[in-house]
Amino acid sequence: MQRKLFLKPFWIMSKLSIVKVGGNVIENEALLLPFLQGFAELTGPKILIHGGGKKASQWAERLGIPVQMNAGRRITDTDTLELITGIYGGQVNKNIVAKLQGLGCNAMGLSGADGNAIQAIKRPVAAIDYGWVGDVQSVNSVFFSQLLNQGLSPVCCALTHDGKGQLLNTNADTIAAQIAIALAKQFDVKLYYCFEQLGVLQSLEDPNSLIEQIDTKKYKDLVDQKIIHQGMLPKMKNAFDALKQGVSKVAIGKPEMISSSIKHTTLTLKR
Q: How confident is the model at residue 4 (pLDDT cuts 50, 70, 90)?
């Protein structure tokens, strides 16, 4: 009996997991190690983006560098940029890469300057002067694809560059979304935002008040009701931007969601 061959149609894209992990997870070994184990065990190509803001703030306080925030985004003067370059691109990034290598994941640490991975422009001064903060202008999708095709898993920190020799601090949630958007033409991209909560909560006082589905209309309502505010605002904006530009799924929740069926928040466009 002749066997039938089921060939994968050429137009079916490979699945790509893009995972952003927050500072509270990074700094808690009890959360970080199981998360990295889950990431290492993900099948198929994958990219990890990490923050490090909590650790940067701790070091800034030790060194007497004022921490200035606006709507969840860090205002970055020259001293702060030097600090976060060492924290984001050095201590945090290389520790994560080393741990992933120990788990059998061939990780490679990157800033946006490495391989011209991510270019940004310094945010123009308007009502707020954010200092050395960059807004992403381009993602080198060819470079990322080459790394992924070689079996490497990029681990990206929250630093970009302007192509003229200047490093820039860039929101890690934004970097994750922009990488996802850039690669959505070549891969079936799923974007995960991992942090210490189950997902988006109806009330921060009740850790079990999970909102499992949020579309664009519900998102607006939650913002108007001030249920979504501060650091969650840029995360949600980036998530919906990604969905509008071809990313197939965006999920927000605890690190375990990348490797299990734990409940989390799924974002969708309004139908």
A: very low
The residue range of the domain holding 204 is 16-267
pLDDT band at 271, cuts 50/70/90? low
- How many whole angstroms separate alpha carbon 119 and alpha carbon 129? 20
Number of separate domains in the chain: 1
Q: Residue 5: inside a domain, yes or no?
A: no
Q: Tokens 């202008």 sit at which residue?
A: 137
- Encode pLDDT of 166-220 as tens digits: 999 999 999 999 999 999 999 999 999 999 899 999 988 898 899 999 999 999 9
* Reported confidence tier of residue 151, pLDDT bands at 50, 70, 90: very high
DSSP per-residue letters across 112-177: TTGGG-EEEEEPPPSSS--BSBEEEEEE-HHHHHHHHHTT-EEEE-SEEE-SSS-EEE--HHHHHH
CATH number of the domain at 132, please: 3.40.1160.10
Q: Please indicate, yes or no, if residue 161 is contained in any of the structural domains.
A: yes
Burial zone of 82 (CB within 10 Å; 0-12 exposed, 13-18 middle, 19+ buried): middle
Q: What are phi and psi of 5, to 5 degrees?
A: -95, 130
pLDDT, tens digit (0-9, with 9 covering 90-100), for 226-252: 888 777 888 899 999 999 999 999 999
236 within domain boundaries: yes
Task: Look at residues 175, 193, 39 and name the one whose alpha carbon lies nearest to residue 101.
Answer: 39
Residue 9 lies in a domain: no
Encode 209-231 in three state secondary structure: CECCEECHHHHHHHHHCCCCCCC
